[in-house]
Write a structure and sequence with these properties.
Blueprint: H1 11-17, H2 22-28, H3 40-47, H4 55-65, H5 69-74, H6 77-89, H7 92-108
Helix pairs in contact: 2-3
């Protein structure tokens, strides 16, 4: 059973999805103000729910992982990450067509056979 004092995030899952160690992620963080230095150990404690996080820290982690803060809080990359990454890489000209295709595929789910 998990000893989690603070809310669940998907920071660890996104970090591993990007192939980063805690130290490499910490090295990518760009923070201003009182949180301008943030250790890999602190990130590890946030990942396990043993340390609270602030909005600036979430924003810095999200930027370092090339995701949104909402992704860190709500999206498991092991389940949805590849689709999210692909959709973000589609240029604006093709995005509407891609969304229409995805919607058509989603609407067709479960109606066959």
């Amino acid at each position: 059973m998990e000893d989690r004092k603070y809310g669940k995030t998907f920071i660890r899952e996104w970090r591993l999805h990007r192939g980063l160690s805690l130290r490499r992620l910490a090295g990518r963080l760009e923070l201003d103000g009182p949180d301008d230095t943030f250790s890999h150990a602190s990130i590890g404690r946030i990942e396990t729910g043993k340390q609270p996080y602030t909005q600036p820290i979430l924003e810095a982690i999200a930027a370092a992982l090339d995701v949104t803060v909402a992704d860190l809080l709500m999206v498991d990359p092991d389940k949805e990450g590849e689709v999210i990454d692909l959709v973000r890489r589609i240029n604006a000209k093709n995005r509407d067509a891609a969304i229409r295709m995805l919607k058509a595929l989603a609407e067709g789910t479960g109606t066959d056979g």
